[in-house]
């Protein structure tokens, strides 16, 4: 077995978070969201529902968007995680999508925003890789980038709720960075 | 949540052995349902056996022209697979109609099949629920049951199975591959799920410790298109109130192959065998479709607040059947 049988309730894991390695002893019950917020002091990722229903906790794991509230940290050993704090890279400059959210005023309270940002970046990569959505026509060629019109953006972002209802501007901000 | 052990076996066999050594264990795949149920206290395993990284993450061609989908293939990858989109469109459409992109990126084939009901009483430890705690009663029967079953329910349980994917797989005649230390076996998806009867605590015919290793799709018949349609309370990111998957082939104006399964209506994906029997060999006309669908839904036994599901399911089925049937040649 990769991990020796662990009769106890804790294991050691190594995660790369925003480019930095962290080796931690985690309780098996620990979900990634709580680990980020409570142990690594990365409080950008938000807890809206804690049950996979709102998307506020969305982060990128090995480049894919996932709900960090439903991921057990112990199962992520060796993963590369990007949170909203890491989107700008090393510099102080915000990511172009963060800039677009500011320019478009794509939030009110801002609670859902970190999840919207990570989700949108994951979404752009999925569309570029040719992943269809519920509204993609059946005749769209497989494996070719899917053009993102507004209905595609809305459908693909439906896993991120915004209680302030900033949806129209979130869609506009995303449109601004579509290559 | 109580503490639990964690194991990450390297092979299917090691996973099965790990279960034999830890009978109170649960397999962890994408975790999108299991971790939720751990938080709610519905699941209290002694150990989690992580199967998420087992080498079951590919979609392979079978020599008979079918496809084998590994148990840990993520729902998003399966929906995007060109072979699935081309040959089994109902499956791709069903996957894309379920959950959210984030959840589909984590959810696996095996986990999707074995996800538990979304009945709110099942998820609430303070409420009676025969599925969670046999003998405690069914809170939903006289309570809030607008989303519950209209077909095949029992006095003990009226829950529905929430998977969209399983509905498409049932209509497509897919089979589930199972593995345990005692051997391997296969079951049609349509027969894999149980009706609740007196034992609603058992969703399927899987045995304790058995592992789903994959799903087999039979070769798609040329000229037999398929489609999935789902009705829900909002345009996206909601479970089905009712849904339908249809495979239909018409030769010379006559139905010569048909598979129909309903979702959201029962404890399992509901193969509409009465409809299929009536349609095989019948002319592919709107009137024939209407009569055949009515035969199936005549068996519905709606509860106080969910009778709306019967006409909803009927309209979904007729829409998809009429859409898949090529328009008759102009007279
Ligand atoms: C907010 C929300 C909305 C959703 N909406 C929808 C929807 O609209 N339609 C829909 O279909 N689904 C929906 N889902 C459910 C989602 O599709 C399932 O949670 C997911 O498919 C489960 O897969 P998983 O790999 O994460 O399973 P896990 O959570 O890892 O496992 C689920 C169960 O299966 C068992 N298991 C997993 N893999 C195997 C295996 N290979 N062999 C044996 N046992 C196994 C586990 O032990 C566990 O009991 C939604 C979920 C959420 C949270
Ligand atoms: S319908 Fe089934 S799952 Fe829901 S409360 Fe009744 S017994 Fe429990
Ligand atoms: S906090 Fe994770 S989806 Fe809501
Ligand atoms: S900006 Fe307030 S929840 Fe979205």
Automatic annotation (TrEMBL), chain A:
<keyword id="KW-0560">Oxidoreductase</keyword>
<dbReference type="InterPro" id="IPR052914">
    <property type="entry name" value="Aldehyde_Oxdr_Iron-Sulfur"/>
</dbReference>
<dbReference type="InterPro" id="IPR036884">
    <property type="entry name" value="2Fe-2S-bd_dom_sf"/>
</dbReference>
<dbReference type="InterPro" id="IPR001041">
    <property type="entry name" value="2Fe-2S_ferredoxin-type"/>
</dbReference>
<dbReference type="InterPro" id="IPR006058">
    <property type="entry name" value="2Fe2S_fd_BS"/>
</dbReference>
<dbReference type="InterPro" id="IPR036010">
    <property type="entry name" value="2Fe-2S_ferredoxin-like_sf"/>
</dbReference>
<keyword id="KW-0479">Metal-binding</keyword>
<dbReference type="InterPro" id="IPR002888">
    <property type="entry name" value="2Fe-2S-bd"/>
</dbReference>
<keyword id="KW-0408">Iron</keyword>
<dbReference type="Pfam" id="PF01799">
    <property type="entry name" value="Fer2_2"/>
</dbReference>
<dbReference type="InterPro" id="IPR012675">
    <property type="entry name" value="Beta-grasp_dom_sf"/>
</dbReference>
<protein>
    <submittedName>
        <fullName>2Fe-2S iron-sulfur cluster binding domain-containing protein</fullName>
    </submittedName>
</protein>
<feature type="domain" description="2Fe-2S ferredoxin-type">
    <location>
        <begin position="11"/>
        <end position="87"/>
    </location>
</feature>
<dbReference type="Pfam" id="PF00111">
    <property type="entry name" value="Fer2"/>
</dbReference>
TrEMBL record, chain B:
<protein>
    <submittedName>
        <fullName>Xanthine dehydrogenase family protein subunit M</fullName>
    </submittedName>
</protein>
<dbReference type="InterPro" id="IPR051312">
    <property type="entry name" value="Diverse_Substr_Oxidored"/>
</dbReference>
<dbReference type="Pfam" id="PF00941">
    <property type="entry name" value="FAD_binding_5"/>
</dbReference>
<dbReference type="InterPro" id="IPR002346">
    <property type="entry name" value="Mopterin_DH_FAD-bd"/>
</dbReference>
<dbReference type="InterPro" id="IPR005107">
    <property type="entry name" value="CO_DH_flav_C"/>
</dbReference>
<dbReference type="InterPro" id="IPR016166">
    <property type="entry name" value="FAD-bd_PCMH"/>
</dbReference>
<dbReference type="InterPro" id="IPR016167">
    <property type="entry name" value="FAD-bd_PCMH_sub1"/>
</dbReference>
<dbReference type="InterPro" id="IPR036683">
    <property type="entry name" value="CO_DH_flav_C_dom_sf"/>
</dbReference>
<dbReference type="InterPro" id="IPR016169">
    <property type="entry name" value="FAD-bd_PCMH_sub2"/>
</dbReference>
<feature type="domain" description="FAD-binding PCMH-type">
    <location>
        <begin position="1"/>
        <end position="222"/>
    </location>
</feature>
<dbReference type="InterPro" id="IPR036318">
    <property type="entry name" value="FAD-bd_PCMH-like_sf"/>
</dbReference>
<dbReference type="Pfam" id="PF03450">
    <property type="entry name" value="CO_deh_flav_C"/>
</dbReference>
<keyword id="KW-0560">Oxidoreductase</keyword>
């Amino acid at each position: 077995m990769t991990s020796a049988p662990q009769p106890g309730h804790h294991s050691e894991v190594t995660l790369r978070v925003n480019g930095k390695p962290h080796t931690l002893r985690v309780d098996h019950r620990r979900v990634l969201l709580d680990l980020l917020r409570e142990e690594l002091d990365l409080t950008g990722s938000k807890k809206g529902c804690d049950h996979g229903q709102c998307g506020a906790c969305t982060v990128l794991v090995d480049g894919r968007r996932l709900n960090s509230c439903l991921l057990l940290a112990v199962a992520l050993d060796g993963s590369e995680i990007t949170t909203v704090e890491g989107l700008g890279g090393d510099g102080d400059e915000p990511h172009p999508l963060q800039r677009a959210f500011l320019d478009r005023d794509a939030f009110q309270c801002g609670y859902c925003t970190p999840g919207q940002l990570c989700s949108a970046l994951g979404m752009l990569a999925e569309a570029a890789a040719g992943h269809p959505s519920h509204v993609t026509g059946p005749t769209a060629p497989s494996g070719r980038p899917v053009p993102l019109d507004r209905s595609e953006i809305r459908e693909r972002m439906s896993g991120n709720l915004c209680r302030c209802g900033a949806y129209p501007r979130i869609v506009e901000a995303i449109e601004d960075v579509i290559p | 949540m109580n503490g639990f052990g964690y194991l990450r076996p390297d092979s299917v066999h090691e996973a099965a052995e790990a279960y034999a050594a830890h009978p109170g264990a649960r397999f962890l795949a994408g975790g999108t349902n299991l971790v939720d149920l751990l938080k709610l206290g519905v699941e209290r395993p002694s150990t989690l056996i992580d199967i998420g990284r087992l080498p079951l993450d590919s979609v392979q061609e079978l020599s008979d022209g079918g496809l084998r989908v590994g148990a840990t293939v993520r729902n998003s990858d399966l929906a995007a697979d060109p072979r699935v989109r081309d040959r089994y469109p109902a499956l791709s459409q069903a996957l894309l109609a379920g959950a959210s992109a984030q959840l589909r990126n984590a959810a696996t084939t095996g986990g999707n099949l074995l996800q538990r009901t979304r009945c709110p009483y099942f998820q609430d430890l303070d409420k009676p629920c025969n599925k969670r705690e046999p003998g405690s009663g069914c809170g939903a029967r006289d309570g809030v049951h607008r989303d519950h079953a209209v077909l095949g329910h029992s006095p003990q349980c009226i829950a529905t199975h929430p998977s969209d994917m399983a509905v498409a797989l049932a209509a497509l005649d897919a089979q589930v591959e199972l593995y345990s230390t005692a051997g391997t076996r296969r079951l049609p998806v349509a027969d894999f799920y149980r009706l609740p009867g007196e034992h609603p605590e058992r969703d399927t015919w899987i045995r304790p410790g058995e592992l789903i290793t994959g799903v087999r799709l039979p070769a798609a018949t040329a000229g037999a298109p398929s489609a999935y349609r789902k009705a829900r309370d909002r345009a996206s990111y909601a479970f089905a109130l009712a849904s339908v998957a249809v495979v239909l082939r018409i030769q010379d104006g006559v139905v010569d192959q048909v598979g129909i399964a309903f979702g959201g209506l029962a404890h399992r994906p509901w193969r509409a065998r009465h409809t299929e029997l009536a349609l095989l060999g019948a002319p592919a006309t709107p009137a024939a479709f209407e009569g055949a669908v009515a035969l199936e839904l005549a068996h519905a036994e709606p509860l106080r607040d969910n009778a709306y599901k019967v006409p909803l399911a009927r309209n979904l089925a007729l829409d998809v059947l009429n859409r898949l049937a090529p328009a008759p040649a102009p007279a």
